[in-house]
Amino acid sequence: MTLLDSDLHRSPSAIVLIPVFNDWEALERLLWSLDETFLDRDIRVDILIVDDASIAPAPTELKFFSFKAIERVNILELKRNLGHQRAIAIGLAYIAANLNCKVVVVMDGDGEDNPQDVPRLINCCQAESNAKVIFAKRTKRSETYLFKAFYLVYKLVYKLLTGHHIQVGNFSVIPYQLLSRIVVISEIWNHYAAGIMRARIPYTEIATKRSNRLFGRSKMNFVSLVTHGISSISVYADIVGTRLIISVSVVVLLILISLGGIVSIKLFTSLAIPGWTSIAVGILCSILMQAVMLSIVFALMILNTRNSYGFMLGQDYYYFVSKLKEVFSREVLSK
């Protein structure tokens, strides 16, 4: 895959990375909002849209737009649909391999990540001497009460299984100097934010409010949301497995103590044993066998996780890239 020579010699202040699947109407409005946000600021911005094998074609009228702050808009087309997390991972790998800038902004294309917060994230990154990833921590969400309830359950399960809190999504700013470290984190293939946290990349969070979609309705259904949650937990597979082994071991110990108590009463006392005791013992033995089997399965999963190499994003991303298409350039318009 070739790269335009001009890409190697120009260096915008920021590259905004936006994964998109069919949500072109919302994206157009987001680009206008971003352009207005950066218009009065001395920030050169390029946009890299990762088209996650959309069914609906990308709009052709972007080349006629008259952006004032946005220098260039490129679409990186993928060969197949991979999902937002993997589209982000491929976009980051592409930028690290082919482009240069000061910071990379990662945000969704539906407008729920408020463009007005982008300068705040960039300023925070500069205040941290470009040494930390800056995540937007959502203090107020715009979803339904049912979604919020499930989200609380997800955070509780995440905390119990991994031992960590998670209150951030994709919306973030990455210093370019950290990008080479991030694209070798195979875990971001499953979950971008959790992968960075698991790899102990320095990061901090700033409070933001989630905005409303700019157009249409979310295409995420309940199954997709559950899959997304499981993907974030899978980043900590070995820790989750270890915690489950400990939990199962505690259950096994309690079962053995219960069985020992029943046998002791039967052999060493004159107390009457109820008729249901034999049924209870059978149930406990069945649970014990299943607990032991689960422990073995978890142990094998941990060994497999620790002994196998993950997907090498930095060197393998291009297998999924179809082509890079320039859809807007101020340089072309000025000629």
Folded structure, characterized:
The protein is of the alpha/beta class and 335 residues long. The protein has an eight-stranded mixed sheet, sandwiched between helices. It is built from twelve helices and eight strands. It has two domains: 5-236 and 312-334, Spore Coat Polysaccharide Biosynthesis Protein SpsA, Chain A, CATH 3.90.550; 238-307.
Largest sheet: 8 strands, mixed
Which CATH architecture of the largest domain would you pick? Alpha-Beta Complex
Overall SS class: alpha/beta
Helix content: 40-55%
Q: Could you say what the CATH topology of the largest domain is called?
A: Spore Coat Polysaccharide Biosynthesis Protein SpsA, Chain A
Strand order of the largest sheet: 7-5-6-4-1-2-3-8
Give the total of beta strands: 8
User: How many alpha or pi helices?
Assistant: 12
- The low-confidence runs, each spanning 5 or more residues with pLDDT under 50, are 1-9
Full CATH superfamily name of the largest domain = Spore Coat Polysaccharide Biosynthesis Protein SpsA, Chain A
Mean pLDDT: 84
Assembly category: single chain
Radius of gyration: 25 Å
User: Topology as H/E string?
Assistant: HEHEEHEHEHEHHEHHHHEH
How would you concisely characterize the structure shown here?
One of its GO terms (biological process) is lipopolysaccharide biosynthetic process. This protein is an alpha/beta fold.
Keywords:
single chain; 335 residues; 12 helices; 2 domains; alpha/beta; Spore Coat Polysaccharide Biosynthesis Protein SpsA, Chain A; elongated; 8-stranded mixed β-sheet; 8 strands; disordered N terminus
